[in-house]
Amino acid sequence: MNAIDKIQPQSSVPALQAVNEFVVKFANVNGSGSASANQLFAKAILRMGVPVTPRNIFPSNIQGLPTWYEMRVSEAGHMGARDGTDLIVAMNPQTWDEDIASIVPGGYLFYDSTKPMPPSKFRDDINVIGVPLTAITNAAYTLSRERQLFKNIIYVGVLAALLEMDVKAIEGLLADQFKGRDKLIAANHQALRLGYDYALANLQCPIGLRFRPSDQVGDRIFLEGNAASALGALYGGATVCAWYPITPSSSLAEAFIRYCNRYRVDPETKKKRFGIVQAEDELSSIGMVIGAGWNGARAFTATSGPGISLMQEFIGLAYFAEIPAVIFDVQRAGPSTGMPTRNQQCDLLSCAYASHGDTKHVLLFPEDPAECFDFGADAMDLADRLQTPIFVLLDLDIGMNERLCRPLTWDDSRKLDRGKVMTAEDLVAGKVFGRYLDVDGDGIPYRTYPGTHPSKGAYFTRGTSRDEYARYTEDGAAYQRNMDRLLKKFETAKTLVPAPISTKAAAPTKFAAIYYGSTAPAMLEAAEILAGRGIHLDLMRVRGFPFAAEVGAFVEAHDKVFVVEQNRDAQMRTLLINEEEINPKRLGKVLHYDGSPITARHIAETIAGQIG
Amino acid sequence: MTYMTKPKMHHPDLKTNALGFTRRDYEGPVSTLCAGCGHDSISAAIIRACYQLNLQPHRIAKLSGIGCSSKTPSYFLGASHGFNSVHGRMPSVLTGANIANKDLIYLGVSGDGDSASIGLGQFAHAIRRGVNMTYIVENNGVYGLTKGQFSATADKGAKNRRGVPNMDEPIDMISMALQLGATYVGRSFSGDKDQLVPLIEGALMHKGAAFIDCISPCVAFNNHDGSTKSFDYVREHNEAVNRMDVILGREPITAEYAPGQMEMVRQHDGTYLKLKKIATDYDPTDRVAVMNYLQEHKARGEIVTGLLYVDSDADDLHGYLDSVDAPFNSLSDADLVPGAGALAKLNASLR
Fold it and tell me: N or C: which end of chain B has fewer CB within 10 A?
């Protein structure tokens, strides 16, 4: 069907009507400058007090290929991904067909009608809004760069009118963004008004989807998990960062550079209290982290699955030599290029048991940027406390998308926990130093920093083959004692990792679900959906590995526990079976691994199907 | 093999250095390498260099990879912290350690198997970053711990013990180090202590990436006729361009040589490298000329040794990082944590 200006186009089914509860998706061309316009749109919604959760869906390309920005608007606070699009802003002819197909019946299509589209390219059950964006833009601007950028702002203006947004909020945001550059502010305001006024004059405004000011955002902030992790590392006292670029983790290291330059430059000398090295590869980046950790500085790297694979040997060394290290793994799908710009939680096993020999590692699972910050700082303390590598497992969904979360907090009375470090004073006072001696019964030995004392406390660091005093030995009994102590240390870790959070269902139930990380918002929404159908679930969000005692007890207390995760092989479930010796039959699998973020509907339908 | 301590008793008249340490204070446990191994001579040279430089043993950090040479840090500087890391990756561990604490002296010990194959990348990048370190490759052309396979520095045509020749081109780590920007480059021979000790001394006092390629014959697997890394072969083909003494800043400098035969190079810390020229036209401060000289003499089958290149004004990684004077591992919470106030402001900017 053709879209005709000034007339509200009609779908064959009733047009969707919703206030503050819908999904808007922008289909753009990579590198066209759309990202900042889309972000502007999202922030304007937040300024109206309406929660919104955007997600970038992008290919492994820099310019010219499709990219999408999907926004879930939800006054009710649902932040998980949702299937179907209520309004598509179709700015990319390459993906037209799939974009049109993604619209729910009764939904809306907004497109650039400068070039006529054949009627076969539309659907009867959607509402079409055509605006000659290119024509409007080209009439107003002559420079090609201006045309490209302002076209994006013009469509934001049109949308503001169509969705009854507060155009003043957008103008305020533009003024903040270009503070001090008045010409730019004026030009952006002009472009915004061009679209806004065109829509009011030529289109039926508003459409069935509308915004209404709300108070559901509160004091929450809007931040990417990668940036929050970097801030956490900074607050956790990290001074050394060695990294190698890999999507979706690069922006974590880049954020660390940015924040360090803001917070860690000596005000008088202008010299830096941080050392950041872009390494030649992941073998080197983890090596530098381990060297720095051995020498008493807090250090981390940021990587993704392939980087974890490359780091395996070094991770084993750090485990056996008991060296603090923090590894942020921003998980992604599959090897190679392509799917890696999509989301998965697929590195649990390769991290939990990383390296050769008997190894087990500590993992943390943040659910959102606020927890990325908390766990980023906690990981630094845990690494020193436990003298071992600590993995913070984010994923692309929380790492590279801005997410609404509680404000970041820091207790100024908090002291960085440097763990068991013997000082020159301790050594002089006659304290017995055995690098691998379990003095306190918790499996954690004391260490000295290199250079501590002229004649006491030096030791030679190597993988295994040493006794309690770090003397070389190939004695089997000494090896076994060391391995058993490392296991004891792992037991201690159970009491130190962030505790799981459990929620009781509204009614007594034999069913439960375990979930973690970025699955959290979809899981909570799914539990609501299921409760509406009379299926009640007790919930436990696991936040750390090794599992705290509560985790096993939680499973024991239910007949069936669904383990919800975003990978093919049910990796968390495997960890539960392996470490807690739980009967696999009691653990249901709820899996999602097509690279898109898991949805509440998928979880609810899978669980309902399994309960029967 | 288990750990064997050496008795600490020593002759009461054993000489002490300016810090009151004897040479024995720089030793470690008994070496477990083969009797006559060139690597043990290098360990002895390191001990002597540290003793003569009056270094505090605990202010040195010794790091290595995997292999015979990488085992040696156990056998010297027993009062220093040491780190036996993974194969070919000592450079990254050393780099990280160096970033964490700029105040220690970093000694990286590696071999040709460790640094010229799996470690080639890490070697290259640590050198090009200008990490302040002394990086010694104990170069014997074979893998000793796995019993005599050729390494990547074995010369083309060199024969193994069964007479089978190596047909791959050798990697010349000296040329690579020069090309990658090392600011102190020397080659020596484990059998020439008089040349090796001052080369190590100069490297330890050098600010920047110092690299020493030390040919160190493997008595078990590469000391036969047909080898180009045997004691005999190296002695016959060794062409030293200079002899060096390291003079600590406070010592008087006396000229013993005629002009043109002697050159004094002042290092960053005030020590002087006193170079007695053997090849009179050799200028160790001209990187391009040095590279040409080495290529020409290599083509003649000569093994050029001595202090091959030095840039006494070099900066190091910390200079490039523009780091504060205090070591990172000594910074307090107040230096590191911006606090709740800064976070509240940041929160406000994220709404």
Answer: N
Predicted local confidence at residue A372, as pLDDT:
98
Per-residue pLDDT at A42 exceeds 70: yes
- Mean pLDDT over each residue of chain A, to the nearest integer: 95
Q: Which residue among A444, A464, A496 closes a domain? A: A496
* Domain chopping of chain B, boundaries: 23-330
Alpha carbons B234 and A168: distance in angstroms, whole number: 82
For the domain bounded by B23-330, which CATH number is listed?
A: 3.40.50.970
Model confidence pLDDT, tens digit, residues A102-132: 999 999 999 999 998 888 899 999 999 999 9
Binned at pLDDT 50, 70 and 90, residue B253 comes out as low
Chain B segment 308-337 residues within 8 A of A by beta carbon are: 317-318, 321-325, 327-329, 331, 333, 335-337
The model's confidence at residue A612, banded by pLDDT at 50, 70 and 90, is confident
Q: Give yes or no for a contact between A588 and A561, defined as CB atoms under 8 angstroms apart.
A: yes
pLDDT of residue A172: 94
Encode B63-82: b = buried (16+ Cβ within 10 Å), e = exposed: bbbbbbbbbbbbbbbbbbbb
**How much helix, strand and coil, in percent to the nearest 5, is found in chain A?**
40, 20, 40
Separation in Å, CA of B293 to nearest CA in chain A: 31
CA distance B337 to A235: 5
* Digit-coded pLDDT (tens) for A229-287: 999 999 999 999 999 999 999 999 999 999 999 999 999 999 999 999 999 999 999 99
pTM for the model: 0.95
pLDDT band at B281 (very low <50, low <70, confident <90, very high): confident
What is the helix (H) or strand (E) element at residue A383, kind and residue range?
Answer: helix A369-386
Given an 8 Å threshold on Cβ–Cβ distance, is A297 in contact with B101? yes
Q: Is the pLDDT of residue A459 over 90?
A: yes
Distance from CA of A243 to the nearest CA of B (A): 12
* DSSP label of A242: E
Nearest-by-Cβ selection for A240 from B56, B89, B96: B96
Looking at residue B271, what is its pLDDT? 87
Cα–Cα distance measured from residue B24 to residue B17, given in angstroms and rounded to the nearest whole number: 11
pLDDT of A45 > 90? The answer is yes
A387 in the same domain as A276: yes
Instruction: Give me the domain span that covers residue A439.
Output: 424-496
Quote the CA–CA distance of A283 and A291 in Å, as a whole number: 12
Out of B86, B91, B351, closest to residue A313 by CB: B86
- In this prediction, the answer to ipTM > 0.85 reads yes
- Asked if residue A160 and residue A101 are part of one domain, the reply reads yes
3-state SS class at A111: strand
> Taking CB atoms and an 8 Å limit, are B351 and A274 in contact across chains?
no
**How many Å apart are CA A157 and CA B121, to the nearest integer?**
53
Query: How many structural domains comprise chain A?
Result: 4
Kindly state the percentage of chain A with pLDDT values over 90.
Answer: 90
Instruction: Give the span between the Cα atoms of B341 and B337, in whole angstroms.
Output: 11
CATH number for the domain harbouring residue A281:
3.40.50.970
Same structural domain, A164 and A177: yes
Torsion of CA A31, A36, A41, A44, to 10 degrees: 170
Give the DSSP letter of residue A548: P
What is the CA angle B82-B84-B89, rounded to 5? 120
User: A41 and A152 in one domain?
Assistant: yes
Question: Exposed, middle or buried, A279 (CB in 10 Å: 0-12/13-18/19+)?
Answer: buried
CB contact under 8 A, A234 and B338: yes
